[in-house]
Amino acid sequence: MSYNVKEMIASRFPRETVEVRHSGDPVMVPPSGQYTRDLRQHGLGFLLFSILLVAIFSKPLFSLAVYAAGEELHSHILLIPFVSAYLIYIRRRALPRDYTFSVRWALIPLLAGAISLAAAWTPGVLGRPSSQNDYLALMALSFVCFVAAGGFFFLGRKWMTAAAFPFAFLIFMVPMPDRVADLLETASKLASADAANTLFNISGTPVLRDGTFFHLPNITIQVAQECSGIRSSLVLFITSLLAAHLFLRKPWRKIVLVAAVIPLGILRNGLRIAFIGLLCVHFGPEMIHSVLHKRGGPLFFVLSLIPLFLLLWWLRSGEAAGVRGRRTKV
Fold this sequence. Notes:
Blueprint: H1 3-12, E1 18-22, E2 25-29, H2 32-56, H3 58-70, H4 80-90, H5 103-121, H6 132-155, H7 157-162, H8 164-169, H9 178-203, E3 208-210, E4 213-216, E5 219-222, H10 230-247, H11 251-259, H12 261-283, H13 291-295, H14 297-329
Antiparallel strand pairs: 1-2, 3-4, 4-5
């Protein structure tokens, strides 16, 4: 149904809200005059609030951008706001147009943002001086919470519920705290070492493992903290969330796709360690300094995308088959 038809219906029924459908999504279209007033009052208010918020947080946001550009673990932060804006844009016709003020719902993220801001302004609140990473994490979390509070206040609970994923996706603007990053890196390092040890045994290569050290013929290698692959796993996790949101409908299928990232990331790291170790065994210890070891991360990341996309294709095909089956029965 085109927009002109919507206007015609709204003009004939000025006191009613007309439900239309666009691409299968129900859209509640209020009378055109009411929609214009609501858009000016609520939409413009949220826009001005966002501009003011960016101006207030301009210094920490600029510091965050500079920091993310120089840190491999957090380089994805620069893309997150644009991805969230795009997700809202492609769903714009399915979003509610009856805006309301949801003051009570706005208080929850407002309080969370205030607590994060207070923690950022109080060094040592966690028992030790805050690092630059932790400071920026608290400031970014405060900014995201205030954006959500503005969304609830100016756009309303229904609108925010419909746009929940793009707003929640902004949480990836927050750098991973130091303690969380250390914990995940250690866990990933140990799991990757287990996977590499299994692959060495499968290949029949003589190996003696001592924790994260592998004693191989001609060389001894160590799975260091840098070999945890936490950055690739984080990017893979974000990619799976986006793919599940855009291409899957059933919650359990989304959970399966996202959960598959954990074993997939461990297997990818173990395969990389085992592959480099085998190169050192068969072609010489100097392979530990090869480009494949130092710059091979993107290659193994691309390889890990193949099974992820195959799993996505299988889950999406199952949904499509289910829909066709229900239509056949009807």
